[in-house]
Design brief:
The chain is 70% helix and 7% strand. With 429 residues, it is α+β, with helices and mostly antiparallel strands. The protein has two domains: 259 residues, Up-down Bundle (Rhopdopsin 7-helix transmembrane proteins), CATH 1.20.1070; 146 residues, Alpha-Beta Plaits, CATH 3.30.70.270. Strands 4-5-3-6 form a four-stranded antiparallel β-sheet, sandwiched between helices. Strands 1-2 form a two-stranded antiparallel ribbon. Strand 1 and strand 2 form a beta hairpin. Helix 4 packs antiparallel against helix 5 and helix 8 packs antiparallel against helix 9. The longest helix is centred in the middle third of the chain and has 48 residues. The radius of gyration is 36 Å and the shape is elongated. It starts with a helix and ends with a helix.
């Protein structure tokens, strides 16, 4: 089933790669004939992707609990707002503003994006406080726009007739450094996040670095390197769309089903265990012992059943209380687990009745195990403190051979009968 799903996913991924290639080629043709339309489409695509990420991250958070995606989903819309202003002021779309303002807005948005990608990996392992992030990002974006539009204090980024300012070029380099630091930070947290998401975010960041480097090399807002830089940015957001949006639509629900599957497995495991001692309960014992007998028949080895019932347990409960009785049962279970081998089966069938199944039993295994359990009882401080009663056990042992016609129920009944015979004999000793 997983293999089929994997092949189907690979086919879908290749279809998306092909579709992305067609989309980029179409935009390249548009850029040749109408660069402003190309620029608007690229920026518009990135803004639409950001909007989808916001909806996805915020609406699915209660299912996924993914603070890293929530951080990106909240922070990116503020970046997209500045990018939108960059798009509508680009190349004279809003007459009279000139290329400097558009370039300033671009630089401001890239600083915000780089810092976002640097900080976001903290929330792979930390819990996010969305309200603080919303107000913090709002204040940063508003402050930058105020410095730029109202106070006129934001440095010039494009000088008509000269091209890019030193501040703009230096800023692109600083942004590249911050983005690479973000990649390193993300790598440090990669063990705690989805591997596909990690790879996509790294590739997206690297494409953004290439875009920023390209934007240090043009002198004309319609130039070739400006075009190349926008292609890299487009590729970056196509990756984000593919990894976060398309895969992200599946991720929260996969996570829910994984949690349901894990909960079901825990419930199934708990249904086979005794809650007091942690040993197998009667149901768990029957399931494993039945499989052990089947293996014994197939591989031609013998299995021994030891049925144990505690002596004087009722008196312990009557004198010391049931809480002490529970401690005795847990202590006895611990002693038994210390005495058996890793291939043996140990279970509490109910009350003070226990059973051990010795796999591949030889002539002396039962005798050796009996001696180990008795020695453990002698060394137990808890058992020793229960005077005047001596807590021991009565034992019934049955050896099952590969050609034996008795089923599990018959073997258990025989071991139970032998145990009670031995218990009765003790009364007259």
């Amino acid at each position: 089933m997983n293999l089929v799903k994997s092949k189907s996913q690979v086919r879908k991924d290749w279809e998306l790669v092909l579709l992305g290639g067609v989309f980029v080629s179409l935009l390249a043709v548009i850029a040749h004939y109408h660069y402003l339309l190309f620029h608007t489409l690229v920026e518009g695509f990135s803004i639409v992707v950001v909007g989808i990420i916001y909806v996805l991250a915020t609406r699915t958070y209660k299912y996924s609990g993914h603070d890293y995606l929530l951080f990106l989903g909240i922070a990116y819309p503020f970046i997209a707002t500045v990018d939108f202003m960059h798009a509508v002021t680009y190349g004279g779309i809003c007459g009279g503003m000139g290329p400097n303002l558009s370039t300033q807005l671009w630089v401001a948005a890239r600083y915000m994006e780089a810092i976002t990608l640097l900080v976001a990996p903290f929330f792979v392992i930390k819990k996010l406080k969305p309200r603080w992030l919303v107000w913090g990002t709002y204040c940063v974006a508003t402050g930058v726009l105020f410095l730029m539009l109202k106070a006129g204090l934001f440095p010039d980024c494009y000088v008509a007739g000269l091209g890019l300012s030193r501040f703009k070029v230096a800023s692109e380099i600083v942004v590249c450094v911050i983005l690479m630091a973000g990649v390193v930070h993300l790598k440090m947290r990669s063990g705690r996040m989805n591997n596909m998401l990690f790879k996509i975010m790294v590739l997206s960041s690297l494409l953004t670095v290439l875009a920023e480097f390209s934007f240090t090399l043009y002198n004309d807002v319609y130039g070739v390197m400006n075009f190349v830089g926008h292609l890299f940015k487009l590729g970056s957001f196509i990756l984000i769309y593919w990894g976060i949006v398309l895969r992200g639509l599946e991720y929260p629900f996969d996570l829910v089903f994984d949690k349901m599957r894990s909960a079901l497995e825990i419930m199934q495991e708990n249904s086979l265990k005794d809650p007091l001692t942690g040993l197998l309960n009667r149901r768990g014992f029957r399931e494993l012992a039945g499989k052990e007998l089947s293996r014994g028949k197939k591989e031609n080895y013998q299995v021994e059943f030891l049925y144990l019932d505690l002596d004087n347990f009722k008196e312990v409960n009557d004198k010391h209380g049931h809480w002490m009785g529970d401690k005795v049962l847990k202590e006895f279970a611990s002693i038994m687990m210390s005495a058996v081998s890793e291939n043996d089966i140990v279970a509490r069938l109910g009350g003070d009745e226990f059973i051990v199944v010795i796999s591949r039993a030889g002539e002396q295994e039962a005798v050796i195990l009996d001696a180990k359990i008795k020695e453990g009882l002698k060394q137990s401080e808890l058992i020793d403190s229960l005077t005047p009663f001596t807590v021991g056990y009565s034992l019934g042992s049955v050896l099952w051979l590969p050609g034996d016609t008795r089923d599990l129920e018959e073997v258990l009944n025989e071991a139970d009968s032998l145990m009670y015979e031995n218990k009765e004999k003790k009364k007259y000793q």
